[in-house]
Write a structure and sequence with these properties.
The complex is a heterodimer of chains A (133) and B (141). Chain A is α+β, with helices and mostly antiparallel strands. Chain A is built from three helices and five strands; from the N terminus they run βαααββββ. Chain A has helices at residues 21-31, 35-43, 50-65, and strands at 11-18, 72-80, 89-102, 105-115, 121-132. Chain A has a five-stranded antiparallel β-sheet with strand order 1-3-4-5-2, covered by helices on one side. The model of chain A has no long low-confidence stretch (mean pLDDT 91). Chain B has 141 residues and is an alpha+beta fold. Chain B is 28% helix and 29% strand. Chain B has helices spanning 26-36, 41-44, 46-50, 61-76, 78-81, and strands at 20-23, 85-90, 99-110, 115-123, 129-138. A five-stranded antiparallel β-sheet of chain B has the order 1-3-4-5-2, with helices on one face. The chains are: A alpha+beta (133), B alpha+beta (141). At the A-B interface, α1, α2, α3 and β2 of A face α1, α4, α5 and β2 of B. β2 of chain A pairs antiparallel with β2 of chain B, so a sheet runs across the interface.
Chain lengths: 133, 141
């Protein structure tokens, strides 16, 4: 995919993903998060870390976009609509919301959402990326 | 919603969120790459990264957001997972050897204390702001 040729409004193919127990544990250890395990113990529920959901949704998007080396992540917005249980099957969808050029950089804004099995959004977000030209 | 310890607390304008610090190492960046699936060489390949304008490896921006999210989970519990919003700009990069601090402060409270806006940031040991932004939670989630 030639990212520089994409037009505003371009929709990327949906990417299915799931965070199973092993993936969540690996993530919590990597980021040294002690707050979410405490919350899960308190509630008796196994929730996925919200930023792990976001990271996986973004990973699928970035792979679909084929971002070149040197691309810079400049801004990020997220809204977490509801807690997501470990093992829920989700899909991320994204579209190009903004495209402009300035000072040798291509500026992109990509809006995205992750939905559950019944199509309800559990996460929405917007990522700003600068790509050198 | 079953209130957690902190969400049952009263949040007032000016109150600090519970800050936390993390010592960043290349091993931790590598572990995050494996956990997130983001193997961009700018994060994990010192030789590649040395030839970039950064001059060395840098942490994933999403790793810094994970630290912010831990603080917000600690502060607001389930309310952060159910209706939390975060809007940030990346202003600098975190490198192996950095000591990072994430912190926040309540800026506005609305709806009889049920809707809360906080300024959040991530700084390095030199006090340089690497990430800055705003978080919103609804405590009646």
């Amino acid at each position: 995919m030639d990212i520089a040729a994409l037009e505003k409004g371009h929709r990327f193919p949906p990417v299915p993903f799931v965070l199973d127990e092993a993936a969540v544990q690996r993530y919590l250890e990597a980021v040294e998060d002690t707050a979410l395990p405490a919350l899960c113990r308190d509630e008796g529920q196994a929730w996925t870390p919200p930023m792990a959901l976001a990271a996986l949704a973004l990973r699928g998007l970035m792979e679909a976009m084929g971002l070149p080396a040197g691309a810079v992540h400049t801004s990020q917005e997220f809204e977490f609509r509801r807690p997501v249980a470990v093992g829920e099957r989700l899909a991320s969808r994204a579209w190009l919301a903004h495209r402009s050029q300035r000072s040798g950089w291509l500026a992109l804004a990509v809006e995205m959402e992750a939905t559950d099995e019944v199509g309800q959004a559990v996460l929405a977000g917007r990522a700003g990326v600068l790509i050198p030209q | 919603m079953r209130p957690t310890k902190r969400t049952s607390e009263t949040w007032t304008v000016g109150r600090e969120l519970p800050s936390l610090s993390k010592a960043l190492t290349q091993d931790k960046i590598d572990a995050y790459a494996r956990a997130s699936g983001d193997f961009n060489p700018i994060h994990i390949d010192p030789a590649f990264a040395a030839a970039t304008p950064f001059g060395g490896t840098i942490a994933h921006g999403m790793l810094l957001l994970a630290y912010l999210s831990e603080m917000l989970t600690d502060a607001f519990g389930r309310a952060w997972l159910a209706g939390g919003r975060l809007k940030v700009r990346f202003k600098g990069v975190a490198r192996p050897g950095d000591t990072l601090t994430v912190r926040g402060r309540v800026e506005r409270v609305q709806d009889d204390g049920r809707r809360l806006f906080a300024a959040v940031e991530c700084l390095n040991q030199a006090g340089e702001v690497l990430v800055v932004g705003d978080a919103e939670v609804r405590l009646d989630g």
